[in-house]
Amino acid sequence: MMETVMTYGITRVEALELVRSILKSEHLVNHSLAAEAVLRAMAGRLGADQEKWGLAGLLHDLDSESQPDLATHTTETVAILKGKGVDPEIIEAISRHNLTAWPGEKRTSMFHYALAAGETITGLIVAAALVIPEKKLAMVKAKSVQKRFKEKAFARGADRQTIAECELAGIPLAEFCQLSLAAMQEIAGDIGL
Q1: How far apart are the first and last CA of the chain?
Q2: Which stretches of the chain score pLDDT less than 50?
Q3: How far apart are CA 89 and CA 111, in angstroms?
Q4: Measured CA distances, 50 to 3, 64, 87, 122 (Å)
Q5: Confidence (pLDDT) at 6
Q6: Exposed (0-12), middle (13-18) or buried (19+): which is 153, by Cβ within 10 Å?
Q7: Distance in angstroms (rounded) separating the CA atoms of residues 70 and 82
Q8: 160 touches 167 (CB < 8 A)
């Protein structure tokens, strides 16, 4: 990954250090890394800024431990990132991935839809890996992710309506499942799967 110095108010190295200093749960750090990988892949597919989208994926859940209630989740993250001078578009996309905390706001851009869908599908993909005997992303197939998407009782926390917003970002659902899985498989060792 290319390191862009202060183009976005924070470098990838600084962003990862921030994630690791705030989030104590390795599961949440891994989720952030997975979201980063998926967002970078989506940006590459859509011709968007991979560095910017990757940073949004990496930083999106900084306050998930301190603000687990959806009514306040992302409010602390927004404050932290504004204080560090992070790119306003990154901050806006992060705030829009949890609309519950921002009444009256809506997702309106490809970036907003991508972050919401991209970070949400990571949970579905991890769950799909954990139910197979090997518990490895390498053994998961895109068709399996699509099948699990249709099973409403499977990985209930992975909101299907939010995942389907990939289409509003410009990527059909079947392709999105494949792209997201492939992105996560590339970093499987980093996230313990």
Answers
A1: 21
A2: 1-5
A3: 9
A4: 11, 24, 14, 18
A5: 56
A6: exposed
A7: 20
A8: no
CA separation for the pair 10, 29 (Å, rounded):
18
Helix (H) or strand (E) holding 117: helix 110-130
Q: Locate tokens 């998961």: which residue?
A: 140
pLDDT at site 7? 85
Is residue 13 within a helix (H) or strand (E), and if so which, with residue range? helix 12-22
Give the length of the chain: 193
Looking at residue 85, its pLDDT comes to 96
Give Cα separations from 110 to 42, 66, 142, 150 (angstroms): 10, 28, 23, 24
Instruction: Tell the residue number behind the tokens 């005997």, with chain if given.
Output: 133
Which of 73, 74, 61 shows the shortest CA–CA distance to 25?
Answer: 61
**What's the chain's average pLDDT?**
95
For the chain, which domains are there? Answer: 12-186 (1.10.3210)
- As a whole number of angstroms, the distance between CA 114 and CA 180 comes to 11
Contact 18, 59 (CB under 8 A): yes
Of 180, 142, 191, the closest CA to residue 41 belongs to 180
* Torsion sign across C-alpha atoms 155, 28, 143, 51: positive
